[in-house]
UniProtKB/TrEMBL annotation:
Entry function: Transcription termination factor. Binds to a 28 bp region within the tRNA(Leu(uur)) gene at a position immediately adjacent to and downstream of the 16S rRNA gene; this region comprises a tridecamer sequence critical for directing accurate termination. Binds DNA along the major grove and promotes DNA bending and partial unwinding. Promotes base flipping. Transcription termination activity appears to be polarized with highest specificity for transcripts initiated on the light strand.
Naturally occurring in which organism (per UniProt): Cyprinodon variegatus
Pfam families xrefs: mTERF
Family, per entry: Belongs to the mTERF family.
The keyword Manganese is annotated on this UniProt entry: no
Name under which the protein is recorded: Mitochondrial transcription termination factor 1
Subcellular location: Mitochondrion
Any one GO molecular function term: DNA binding
Entry keywords, A to Z: DNA-binding, Mitochondrion, Phosphoprotein, Repeat, Transcription, Transcription regulation, Transcription termination, Transit peptide
Gene Ontology cellular component terms for the protein in this record: mitochondrial matrix
GO BP, sorted A to Z: termination of mitochondrial transcription
SMART domains: Mterf (SM00733)
DNA sequence: GACACCGGGGTCTGCCATTTCG
DNA sequence: CGAAATGGCAGACCCCGGTGTC
């Protein structure tokens, strides 16, 4: 008896929700739920395991969900007897998500409809501890529904936030972290701890004195680090250590600085980039020591793949810049080959002398560059 | 004003494999 | 056993501004 009345309540809640939110004919919904009741009463559990829940499918269609996509991604969800698709829709709508966004979220991560209203509210509030507005969260969900819904463990989420704070990350860091790499917060606490421990161990191994500070620094410089595997990060560091011949102190400084980003790269990709860099630079007459200095001064060079780096270097050389100048000011490599090409053309037009003036002009902001060119154009030749 | 130095900002999911759960 | 939860992977840079010094 209690179950029946509970079911009725559920139906009537679903009913009013969908009528309110999507203005559907009441009749349509009643029929939907009735057919579901008959189905599950007479057939019980057996059919459930290999038959899709018809009324659920209808609801998904009403919500505009791409059922084909949902089926392809998480087929089991469509076979469940009890789901909360309408509750989820109402919840998200209340947070400002549009019909399209809701449909897209469910299409891409169907399991979202298995979360209860209480659960959703609790998880949302935990995210709101980090974000300032609901709209920010809706944005992330639209971008990556999986990040929010993949785990149902709110306790774990809470512990993660506490853990990250305990590392010394402030609220601005947390905000950046959750915005940029929301998956971090769905990791198990254990997994996040493992990465932090790895970073601290690396720091100590390299003779660092403050492992906590090191870990915090790497995380805030590289917001993706916690969604990488420890294996990837460890292998990259080992490879860098053996191939670059840096001293421990140099490597430590590299990793805490701009070099933190290169830990993201897949092991093979980083290896390939290091090899290519060494080959290319020595073919241009650079010594081992030049290359080492180059990497220390501009670690992001290891981020650049052969197919980008080589043409970029060639472009600079062809434009009348020497390899020595590039070694002294590697930051020019920060800019796209296209951008460099355009600037070189402009500079050639006004007869810019790199030997006399250096090449820093190539790595100033667009605004400054344009101003400089204008000035040079209006000046008579000297 | 020109320049050097330094640091920061944006940006990253969607799929598959494996393990755990009920 | 199937579903849920969790872990891991591939992919691959560009740009801007504040501040200090001459």
């Amino acid at each position: 008896m209690a179950a029946v009345s509970g079911l009725r309540t559920l139906i009537s809640v679903r009913h009013s929700v969908i009528c309110q939110s999507f203005r559907l004919a009441p009749l349509q919904l009643t029929l939907t739920r009735l057919s579901w009741r008959q189905y599950s009463d007479s057939n019980g559990q057996q059919l459930q395991s290999n038959t899709e829940n018809k009324s659920l499918l209808e609801n998904l269609n009403l919500l505009g969900v791409d059922v084909k996509m949902a089926r392809q991604r998480q087929p089991g969800v469509l076979r469940k007897t009890f789901t909360n698709e309408l509750g989820l829709a109402k919840f998200l709508q209340g947070k400002g998500a549009s019909r399209n966004v809701i449909a897209s979220i469910v299409s891409r991560y169907p399991r979202a409809i298995t979360r209860s209203a209480d659960h959703l509210e609790q998880r949302w509030q935990l995210w709101r501890n980090v974000f300032n507005t609901d709209a920010e969260i809706v944005n992330i969900l639209d971008r990556s529904p999986e990040s929010f819904f993949r785990s149902s463990d709110n306790e774990n989420l809470k512990k993660n936030i506490d853990f990250l704070i305990s590392l010394g990350l402030n609220s601005k860091d947390l905000h950046r972290l959750l915005t940029t790499a929301p998956r971090t917060f769905s990791n198990s606490l254990e997994l996040n701890k493992q990465m932090v421990e790895l970073l601290e161990d690396i720091c100590l191994e390299l003779g660092g004195k403050n492992p906590e500070q090191f870990a915090k620094s790497v995380i805030s410089k590289n917001l993706y680090i916690l969604i990488r595997s420890t294996k990837r990060v460890k292998t990259n560091i080992d490879n860098l250590k053996t191939s670059l011949k840096l001293s421990d102190a140099e490597l430590l400084a590299l990793l805490q600085g701009h070099g933190a980003d290169i830990l993201d790269l897949s092991n093979e990709y980083l290896k390939k980039n290091v090899n290519n860099l060494e080959q290319k630079m020595s073919s241009l007459g650079c010594k081992k020591n030049d290359i080492k200095k180059l990497i220390i001064n501009y670690p992001m060079i290891l981020y650049i793949g052969p197919s980008t780096l080589n043409p970029k270097l060639d472009c600079l050389l062809k434009g009348g810049i020497t390899i020595k100048q590039i070694l002294e000011k590697p930051k020019v490599l920060d800019y796209s080959t296209q951008n460099i090409t355009e600037r070189l053309k402009e500079l050639q037009r006004v007869g810019y002398d790199f030997e006399k003036n250096g090449i820093h002009i190539l790595d100033t902001s667009k605004k400054r560059f344009v101003a400089k060119i204008e000035k040079l154009s209006s000046l008579p030749e000297d």
